[in-house]
């Protein structure tokens, strides 16, 4: 048996990834330490069949997804992502919310010769119509030597895995 299955990026590492927001240009401040919330499920409705007491039918209703969460070190006020989050979350609906597409790429842990970053994209998820709905700053502690982290939560219309 050949090892092509494992040579083609399986299982992929979870620590090399990139996030692109908006028009596809990788903004320098989109270096995140963690991405979570990638998932989809089908909501179902329980239906009991008359005269049949052994089981309950689970009928599909609609697609359901959670929220996409991105974590990173707290950025400056000049960050394009911070500007967008402030406009949406602190703008008191005075400005139109402009949804963006967020793309998450899971990359290979191997590097091209002469390169300092992983370049081969193994998996890709796209989140359409995304906009920030929550912006948290994790707690500060004088007893730890950790990076100050912010977590941005996004709602989105739908997602698809393209690779």
TrEMBL record:
Which NCBIfam families does this one have? conserved hypothetical phage tail region protein
Q: What is this protein called?
A: Phage tail protein
**Which lineage?**
Bacteria, Pseudomonadati, Pseudomonadota, Betaproteobacteria, Burkholderiales
Top-level taxon of origin: Bacteria
Q: Which organism is it from?
A: Undibacterium hunanense
